[in-house]
User: Which sequence fits this backbone?
């Protein structure tokens, strides 16, 4: 999960890219970078940290040009900050390319071998985004005639990328001297949306991970990039698009709607806020039918992403809604923080209970999801310390039981509290008096109710069905082993969680 943005404008884009990355900061807090283009030259600055910390005035003054791309990163396979893996990435052959990528490739190992032995290219980091960039560069070189670039050449190159690359990828790239390229994997797993702004000097275009960047920068939403589609915007503002994949299926990541995206975003034409309201509605119905005996005095959200679901749940059950926790907004999201021990310590720094709302009450805490269980366990403990008589816990998402390999930082099943445990065992682990999970069918129904045109979702972290069809038990086992080895070497492995059961891995 990263944030990407690209702009082709009639005026300098440095400030637009910076502001856009600020509103996409929730998608990655590990590193940030911006690359702009002017007179055939790229200008770039990137580094570890938040957007506001990476860029200073002197850096922004050097980012000249009317078109450019930006990226905010969080690592999907490591806890350590690695400045070398900050994006955008750059190669100078065949035409000069910069690239920003959101997602995760599932055949990176094979691609690295092919790039070295067949494409005769060099990879300098462990980032699959650099691999993707070099695949694109090679396909551009193979598609070009006498090293001349045009729209036909670029579309042919993207088709070559689709044939070679597996996994999830939303990409924004710059081709030196030509323009901005954006494309999405054939399943549309990671989001990518286009905006337009009409000015006296001509049209301007913006492509970003979420529509919130389009709204806040004064653009109007045009549409989403379709699965397998490539979009080209040249430096004169000419817009052209083409389907480049041989076979497509629209299956957006369901976890974007549960947790990752901002509630004020539209993803694939679907309001994230409305879907979260619907999640609360369906969850309320489950509580009504399966837990009518619970004497709930008040409903409280775990700030912030669970708030819409909690509000709607309270409304449907005719229960008081209260804010029982105050959030320190200067602490990062614990879901994307490295290491269990860091996350556990951060929970108490991030949230503080309002004792008056808990004392002597039976409270129902509502969260968007339960991943590792670290946050949930600490929050239940905080509620009891604040004086709650009984603490019930509800999740707007189903149990996260399987590894995610498409760009979300939960690749190891040994880190997932729901892996190998029953709901009651999870309840005891987090210390709650009752635990209610959303059903997967209900979650899908909630999203379908908001946007009936989407009937298929990438939901592998809930059901173990990997939409790309190339994820094997051996692949998952290798990821699990690598993840645990890295955690042990960093001293961040707490040793809890279930074991990887390869018999549970299925494909679609």
Assistant:
């Amino acid at each position: 999960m990263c944030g990407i943005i690209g702009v082709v404008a009639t005026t300098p884009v440095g400030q637009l890219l910076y502001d856009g990355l600020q509103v996409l900061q929730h998608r990655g807090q590990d590193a940030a970078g911006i690359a702009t283009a002017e007179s055939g030259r790229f200008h770039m600055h990137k580094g570890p940290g938040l957007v506001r910390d990476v860029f200073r005035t002197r850096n922004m003054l050097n980012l000249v040009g009317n078109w450019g791309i930006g990226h905010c990163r969080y690592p999907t396979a490591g806890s350590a900050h690695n400045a070398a893996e900050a994006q955008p990435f750059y190669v100078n052959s065949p035409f000069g390319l910069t690239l920003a990528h959101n997602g995760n490739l599932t055949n990176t190992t094979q691609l690295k071998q092919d790039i070295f032995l067949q494409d005769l290219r060099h990879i300098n980091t462990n980032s699959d985004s650099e691999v993707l960039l070099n695949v694109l560069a090679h396909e551009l070189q193979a598609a070009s005639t006498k090293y001349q670039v045009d729209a036909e050449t670029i579309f042919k190159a993207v088709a070559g990328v689709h044939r070679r690359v597996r996994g999830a990828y939303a990409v924004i790239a710059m081709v030196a001297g030509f323009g901005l390229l954006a494309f999405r994997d054939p399943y549309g797993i990671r989001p990518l949306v286009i905006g337009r702004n009409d000015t006296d000097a001509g049209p301007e275009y913006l492509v970003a991970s979420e529509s919130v960047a389009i709204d806040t920068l004064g653009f109007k939403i045009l549409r989403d990039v379709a699965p397998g589609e490539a979009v080209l915007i040249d430096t004169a503002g000419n817009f052209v698009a083409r389907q480049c994949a041989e076979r497509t299926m629209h299956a957006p990541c369901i976890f974007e709607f549960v947790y990752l995206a901002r509630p004020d975003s539209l993803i694939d034409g679907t309001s994230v806020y409305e879907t979260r309201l619907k999640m609360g509605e369906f969850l309320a119905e489950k509580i009504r039918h399966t837990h009518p005996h619970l004497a709930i005095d008040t409903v409280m959200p775990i700030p912030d992403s669970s708030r819409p679901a909690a509000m709607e749940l309270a409304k449907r059950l005719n229960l008081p809604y209260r804010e029982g926790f105050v959030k320190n907004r200067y602490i990062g999201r614990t879901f994307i923080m490295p290491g269990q021990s860091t996350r556990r310590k951060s929970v108490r720094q991030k949230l503080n209970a309002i004792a008056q709302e808990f004392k002597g009450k039976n409270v129902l805490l509502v969260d968007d999801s339960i991943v590792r269980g670290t946050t949930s366990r600490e929050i239940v403990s905080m509620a009891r310390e604040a004086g709650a008589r009984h603490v019930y816990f509800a999740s707007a998402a189903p149990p996260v039981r399987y590894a995610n390999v498409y760009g979300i930082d939960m690749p190891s099943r040994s880190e997932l509290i729901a892996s190998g445990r029953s709901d009651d065992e999870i309840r005891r682990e987090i210390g709650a008096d009752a635990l209610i999970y959303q059903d997967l069918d209900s979650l899908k129904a909630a999203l379908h109710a908001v946007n009936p045109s989407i009937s298929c979702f990438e939901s592998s972290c809930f059901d173990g069905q990997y939409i790309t069809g190339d994820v094997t038990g051996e692949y998952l086992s290798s990821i699990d082993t690598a993840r645990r080895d890295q955690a042990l070497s960093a001293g961040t492995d707490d040793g809890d969680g279930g074991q990887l059961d390869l018999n549970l891995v299925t494909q679609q």
User: Anything to note?
Assistant: Residues 473 and 502 are 5 Å apart (CA to CA). The chain has 16 helices and 23 strands.
